[in-house]
Structures are given as C-alpha cells and as structure tokens.
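thought: user wants a sequence for this fold. calling inverse folding tool.
action: design(structure=
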C-alpha cells in the first residue's frame, strides 16, 4: 500500500512538473513573439529608445512564473505598454476590433507617418550599412559608424630573422567596465605574397582588469619580408598597453630585436615614433597615471563615431496607416500592433505614460547580464529566435521546424548550468539552419588543441598530421575511441552543434572543433593497440602547426601544365605570372579554401562580358514573420573580360567543402559560365555577406543575411558548387601523404575533357 501511494505521488508530481514547464514555455513563447513584433516593426519613439538585449532578459524573467493566461496578458501589458502604448492583447482565438481613433490625432494636419523598412536587417547587428539596413522612416536615428576595433601597430623588416623561432610579448590591462576584449596580434608578410604566420589571440582574448604579460610565439616563415604586430581593442572600453618586446631564438639564447619606443615613453603615438594606429571611433593616446613600468603606457579608448539623422525610405513599398500585426502569440492569446504611427516634431502618437517608461528603463539598467542567470539564457534564445524568424533568407530552402527548435532551446535553458552549456544550446538551436556562416562563440571559449590533426576518411577517423614526434602516433593511425567514447558517437555530438550546408563543410568544421578544449586539458584517444593521453597545448590560431606537406603558391608541374594555389597567391603576383601562364597548355587552379583577393583572374577566362544579374539578393521587409516580402535588392559582380585571354587553354579547378562564401562566388562563375573542369567535392553551400550580432554574457553569433543563387537562378544554399569529377581521399593516400585531388587534376590534363559529363553526387 505504501509503495502504491509513493508511486501515485511520484506520478502526480511528474505530471505537475510537466504542466508547469509547459506553462513556462508558453509564457516565454508569447513574450518572444511580441518582443520581435515590437522591436522590428512597431515605429514608436519609446520602442526605439530602450536596450533590447536587456529587455529580452527582463521580460523573460517577468513572464516566467505567470500561472494563467489572465496573469500572462496582464504581465505582457505591463511590459509592452510603456514602449508600445498602442498594443492590444486579448484572450481568445480571434482578435477584437481595433479602434484606430485611439491612435489618430484630432487634427492630422501637422502629422506625418512613421514605419519600419528593412533591407535584410541592421537593427541590433554589429555592423550597419550596405548591404543591410533597418530604417524607421521619417524618425530620428543614431548609427555607430565606429570600426570593429581600434588598433596600435608597428612593423620591422624580417629578412634577418627568416626561419627563426620568435616570441612577442606585451603587458596589457583591460579596464573594468569594458565590454570588448584586448588582443595582441602578430603577422608575417611573405615576399611572394603568400600567407605567413598569423595569430591574434582569437581563442584566448584579454579580459582582465590588471596588468599582465601576454605572449605570442611561433616560427617566422622562410620567405618573410616583414613582421607586423601590435594590439587592438575589439569593441567598447579602454585598454592600456606597455613594455612591448620581440625576441628570436639563436641556439639556446633569446636575442632582442630592437624596437623604437617599446615602452611608449614618447610624447604621442605617431608613425614617426614607431607606432601607428587606426580605427574610426577610437582615441589613441598615452596615460601618465597607469602603466606597467616607466612613466607612460599606450591607451586605446572607444569613443564611438555616432551618426545622427532622419530615416529616409529604403524602397517604395510601405505599410499604410491602419495596417495591423494581428498575431496569435499563444494557443489562446492574440495581440494587435500597428505597423504605422502618426508623428510630429515632438514624438510619435500617442505617447506612453512617462512615469511607466522611466520605471522600465531603470529596471533595465539594473538587469543582470550574468551568464549563469536563467533569464539571461532565455533572453538570448528569444533574441536569436527573432533574428532568424523575421530575416533569415533561406527558410524556404531548408527543411527546419524553427518553432520547434526554439521550444527545444527554451526547454534546454532550464537545465543548463553554466556558460558552456548555454553556448551549446545556442549552437544546437542554429545548427539545423544549414548556414555555414553560423558560428556561435563566447568570450570564455578556449580553442586549444593537441598536436595532431585527424579526419574521417573512408568512414574511419585517421590521424592526418602529427606535430610532436615523441607522441608515438603515426599518420594513418585509426582512432577508435575518444575519452572512452566510440569515435562515431563522439562526433555525432560535435556535428549536432555545427551549422553546415554541405557534408564537406560539416566535416571540415568538425575535424577541428572536435579537438577544441581549455589550455593544458587532456584528451585520451585509443587506437587498435594503444591508448594515448594528449595535452591541448597549441592555440589553433597561432600558426605554429606547420604541415608536413608545405603548400606552394604556384609551380610548374611539367612543360605543359602550370599550377596556382588561389588560397595563397595574390592578384598582384598572378598579374606578373600572366605572360608565363600563356605558354602552358593546361592551367590548374586550386581553390580548396579561401581566395586571396584574386577573383579578377576570372576576367582572363571569360570570352564575353558577364551578363548574369542579381545572383545575390537582399530581402526588402516591412511585415513580420517574412510574410508578403515586398521585394529583393539585387547585387552582382559584373565581371568584364581581360587580356591575355586564357580560356582557350585546358582549365581545371580543384575545390572541396572548405570553399565557402567568397570562394563560392568565385567558383560560381567557373560553374555558371563553364570556364573549366571542376575536380574534387562540393563546396560549403553557403554564400552571402555575414551579418554578425552580439548577445549579453559575451556571446557572439554570425549568420548569412542575404540569399545567393547559382548563375542559372537555381538553389546554391546547402547545395554548393558541385564537381565534374568527384574525388575522395583514401586511407592509402593519407598514409602515403599523397594529394589525391591534385594528382587527379594532373591526370586529367592528359585527357580530352570537352565531352566530360558532370557526375551526380549523392551524399
């Protein structure tokens, strides 16, 4: 009997918890939908004058414990009426009649109309301006035209240090209250235009409010011409820099490289005393009151370059007065919000209760942004949901139930315990969108890796590079388990966090991100015969991971075949090579990555001028939920022809899943105009300008804000540029260190490719 009562109690308790969680989810969904409608489409002055990030957190907390529809509606009115005094809520499945007399001035003679227009979206985004813009038409606005970062830099000639190990250090302090980060950075410029060493502390930025010495180490490229380095403030705040030192290793000794004004003891920061600076919206000066040593330190201060103006229409279409957003925000609650308001020189009409508005603003100022707070996590999920709900251009091409993914993320937020859990929730929320530009990171993300690379080849996880000969691992070794877990299961979780348009991009991201972890942390891997304990001791951005196969920018394969690596060679270099390239029968272009600003080579392959129009498009939006899109603004490259014409040669392009965005614009011309035979694997299937935004708690997210099609108008997203000749790596090829893609391209130069049929690829 006692056991029966206990089971009955547990059953009732479970049912009660489920009902409570269901009510909470309904509350958050109702708030989230209203949040997006007011933020992006309601043109009141009050709504344009609040901190929407904080409002998402504050509102999520307020609706959290509403126990009934009546209580929820009351709370929503309290939240939104100070910023949208014309909003109406009612319980019931149908909207009640809306009285427009309440929002119409008695005499409209001195009034005009205000409304929102969006090209893509810039409201709440990190960058504003072409091609994305959000304008509250006819009302005042402020846009921060500041650069993303403020930078102090210098350079020294590198010829005497080529091939040497170096160490670059600086003492840095990020003042309390700064929301940005500090970053030392170091770059090697090579004499042949190829990419050299580069590190900008991307995985471990400076966030501490005390003087500390930070370090970048690496090896200077053999072809190095210049060493360029400095420090930047990424975002808002104040950063101090002092006591820069650069040394190289000679035998067992570290030798100092002389730097002028390395302690910033001069009267100003100028090119004449070694240190230049750049960054709109940032001030660069010296501090005599806070330094690590000596009398002065360098200061980077965000001040902001704020541009004020009155919004002018982005396009002709607009909502008329009397148009409403009539939306069911929950199963039984409807809200109505005007899309257009009257305004005069003073404000939009009607004005909200001033006392209530000020109380709301004060409450927002006191809202905690701590990443451990449930309401902060809920607010970030709500914010993210709305960005994509109203502006993601690929919902019609991606099979995703966005409402269900949102609900799943809300539910997960209740069980997340720390910053890392929340990061994973945001990643899994956006992964189903199949957008290779989506990256979710946080200020606490640590991207250190062990001294290996691995890759899935023929359905086996193989070691593809080893950077520490003492490990006992060999290239081609198969990894069976990772931290005691089957490798397939381990990668399944990694893949669930990555948004990717094609399998190639997913594998590329996963093979690196599966290695990530905190500095000095351990990862245990198992082969058939042995267990290895590896230490994550390398910064993935540091450029110290020298490949056992050294990439070359260009080379002669034989007397008839010339090879160029478009990831490495600049257009300036290509221009010097053009006369030489005319003498070969076959040209192989390698684009398994990202072009180095060299897409003008396309002009030398085109026989006639490019006529493809509007293959890049930005949505024109005035209505929520992407309903009744009013149009698209079209963009294209409009490539012209150029001499010498190389299109009469045998042209072969190598590509794979690493080619994304700009690389796919490039490859889109090769595919669309049939400018060569494409060898390899499908590209990433993600193109269009990135549109990043930031969330409270130090989280950052990038995504694709425009739609890009193939040149024939067909779908590119989640498809990519597909090869004519499909090539896959083999286990034998990995073990023997063959470049099987290049070998296939060279083999094809002996064939007549004019009648080659494009392969059909099924992932």
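)
observation: tool returned 763 residues.
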């Amino acid at each position: 009997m006692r056991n029966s009562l206990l089971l009955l109690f547990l059953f009732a308790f479970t049912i009660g918890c489920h009902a409570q969680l269901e009510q909470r989810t309904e509350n958050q969904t109702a708030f989230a939908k209203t949040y997006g409608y007011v933020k992006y489409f309601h043109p009141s002055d009050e709504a344009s004058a609040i901190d929407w990030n904080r409002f998402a957190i504050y509102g999520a907390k307020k609706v959290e414990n509403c126990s009934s529809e009546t209580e929820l509606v009351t709370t929503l009115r309290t939240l939104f009426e100070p910023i949208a005094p014309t909003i109406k809520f009612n319980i019931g499945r149908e909207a009640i009649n809306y009285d427009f007399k309440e929002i119409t001035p008695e005499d409209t003679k001195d009034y005009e109309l205000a409304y929102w227009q969006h090209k893509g979206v810039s409201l709440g985004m990190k960058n504003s301006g072409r091609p994305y813009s959000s304008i509250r038409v006819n009302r005042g606005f402020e846009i921060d035209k500041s650069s993303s970062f403020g930078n102090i830099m210098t350079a020294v000639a590198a010829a005497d240090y080529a091939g040497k190990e170096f160490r670059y250090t600086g003492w840095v302090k990020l003042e309390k209250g700064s929301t940005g980060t500090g970053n030392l950075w170091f770059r090697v410029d090579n004499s042949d235009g190829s990419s050299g060493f580069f590190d900008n502390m991307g995985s471990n930025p400076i966030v501490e409010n005390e003087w500390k010495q930070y370090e970048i180490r690496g090896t200077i490229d053999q072809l190095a011409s210049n060493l360029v380095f400095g420090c930047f403030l990424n975002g808002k705040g104040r950063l101090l820099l002092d006591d820069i030192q650069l040394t190289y290793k000679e035998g067992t000794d570290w030798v100092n490289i002389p730097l002028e004004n390395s302690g910033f003891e001069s009267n100003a920061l100028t090119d004449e005393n070694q240190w230049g600076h750049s960054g709109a919206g940032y001030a660069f000066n010296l501090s005599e009151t806070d330094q690590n040593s000596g009398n002065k330190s360098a200061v980077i201060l965000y001040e902001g370059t704020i541009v004020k103006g009155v919004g002018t229409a982005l396009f002709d279409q607009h909502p008329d007065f009397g148009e409403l957003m009539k939306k069911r925000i929950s199963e039984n609650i409807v809200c109505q919000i005007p899309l257009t308001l009257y305004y005069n020189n003073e404000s939009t009409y009607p004005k909200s209760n001033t006392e209530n508005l000020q109380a709301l603003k004060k409450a927002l100022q006191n809202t905690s942004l701590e990443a451990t707070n449930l309401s902060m996590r809920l607010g970030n999920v709500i914010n993210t949901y709305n960005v994509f709900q109203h502006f993601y251009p690929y919902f019609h091409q991606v099979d995703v139930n966005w409402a269900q993914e949102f609900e799943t993320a809300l539910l997960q937020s209740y069980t997340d315990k720390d910053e890392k859990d929340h990061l994973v929730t945001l990643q899994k929320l956006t992964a189903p969108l199949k957008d290779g530009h989506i990256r979710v990171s946080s200020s606490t993300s640590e991207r250190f890796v062990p001294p290996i690379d691995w890759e899935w080849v023929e359905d086996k996880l193989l070691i593809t590079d080893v950077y520490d000969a003492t490990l006992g691992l060999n290239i081609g070794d198969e990894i069976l388990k990772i931290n005691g877990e089957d490798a397939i299961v381990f990668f399944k979780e990694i893949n669930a966090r990555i948004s990717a348009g094609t399998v190639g991009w997913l594998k590329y991201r996963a093979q690196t991100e599966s290695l990530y972890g905190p500095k000095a942390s351990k990862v245990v891997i198992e082969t058939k015969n042995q267990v290895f304990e590896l230490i994550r001791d390398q910064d993935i951005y540091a450029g110290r991971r020298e490949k056992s196969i050294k990439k070359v920018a260009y080379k002669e394969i034989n007397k008839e075949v010339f090879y160029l690596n478009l990831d490495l060679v600049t257009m300036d270099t290509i221009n010097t090579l053009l006369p030489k390239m005319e003498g070969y029968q076959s040209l192989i272009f390698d684009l398994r990555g990202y072009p180095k600003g060299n897409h003008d080579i396309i002009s030398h392959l085109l026989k006639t001028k490019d006529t493809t129009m509007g293959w890049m498009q930005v949505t024109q939006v005035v209505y929520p939920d992407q309903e009744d899109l009013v149009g698209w603004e079209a963009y294209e490259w409009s490539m012209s022809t150029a001499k010498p014409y190389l299109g009469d040669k045998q042209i072969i392009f190598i590509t794979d899943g690493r080619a994304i965005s700009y690389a796919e614009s490039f490859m889109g011309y090769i595919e669309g105009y049939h400018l060569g035979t494409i060898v390899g694997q499908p590209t990433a299937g993600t193109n269009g300008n990135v549109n990043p935004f930031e969330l409270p708690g130090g989280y950052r997210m990038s995504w694709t804000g425009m739609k890009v099609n193939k040149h024939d108008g067909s779908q590119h997203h989640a498809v990519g540029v597909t090869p004519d000749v499909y090539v896959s790596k083999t286990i034998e090829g990995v073990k023997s260190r063959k470049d099987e893609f290049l070998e296939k391209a060279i083999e094809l130069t002996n064939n007549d490719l004019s009648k080659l049929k494009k392969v059909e690829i099924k992932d």
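thought: summarizing for user.
answer: Here is the designed sequence. The chain has four domains: 20-109+321-367, 149-304, 448-539, 554-697+709-748.
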